[in-house]
Amino acid sequence: MNRIAESEFILNQRGAVYHLNLRPEELAPTIITVGDPDRVGEVSKHFDQVEGKFQHREFVTHTGRIGQKRISVVSTGIGTDNIDIVLNELDALVNIDFDTRTVKSTHTPLTIVRVGTSGSLQADIPADSFVASTHGLGIDNLLNFYQQKNNPEESEIVGAFINHTKLGNNIASPYIASAGPSVLKHFVEGFHHGITVTCPGFYGPQGRVLRLGLFNTDWVDQLTSFQYGNHRITNFEMETSGIYGLGKLLGHHCLSLSAIVANRVNKQFSKDGAAAVEKLIIKTLEILSA
């Protein structure tokens, strides 16, 4: 087995993976990811026991237990550039031998569930409701740096999306990946399901106008009106496609859950987004710990 060089797989002085500052024994097999480092404590306060707390830069991890279920909650920061770091290092923690710097012969899958916020793109998905993403459709280009292959349905959805939006290669080459079905099946009641578009920014890429004009002034309407068979775009945010894409390539079971804090069709914003996120955290932990 080929040894991975120090410049490619970086460990710190305590033998922890560089960005996350975690050693293999400090990570649980079930992981909740949140964007905001301050939200890690909002999740772990519901643990029966916290085994350890770790931090490096914006990456904060709390590992503990609810009953007999061991769970880690990890902050990613915003965007798929950070997801590239987090997903690769989470995988390394279970599938690379830190002593020999070689890939383990036996693959270990993780369950990774994103709990975050998002904007709705459908009038019937109001603020303070929840979305479980069936697919992550990325216009951020991250997965285009990796070898990937879509199944026929995924390829057809991407083709229909490009044709519908007339999205030019000067902006993005869209890609798509699906949720892990073994996780998604537990998040049905109380959740809207649909495609989540992952954008490389919060303002222009999500159709917001402050002082700068947009390349495509109909962008939000184009996303809202897209449909392929029973699939429609329910919401957009900034991490899901990276989690689904890398998770699929690395052999992990991933799901993205969103508390809707804004409805971009009705121009509504949640009156208490923190309360909506708290409800989603509690619901997620109840399902995962069961």
Automatic annotation (TrEMBL):
Its EC number is 2.4.2.3. PANTHER family: FI09636P-RELATED, URIDINE PHOSPHORYLASE. GO terms for molecular function: purine-nucleoside phosphorylase activity; uridine phosphorylase activity. Gene3D superfamilies: Nucleoside phosphorylase domain. It comes from Sediminibacterium sp. KACHI17. Pfam families: PNP_UDP_1. This is Uridine phosphorylase. It is an enzyme of class 2 (transferase). One of its GO terms (biological process) is purine nucleoside catabolic process. It comes from the Bacteria. InterPro entries: Nucleoside_phosphorylase_d (IPR000845), Nucleoside_phosphorylase_sf (IPR035994). Residues 31-279 form the Nucleoside phosphorylase domain. It catalyses: uridine + phosphate = alpha-D-ribose 1-phosphate + uracil. GO terms for cellular component: cytosol.
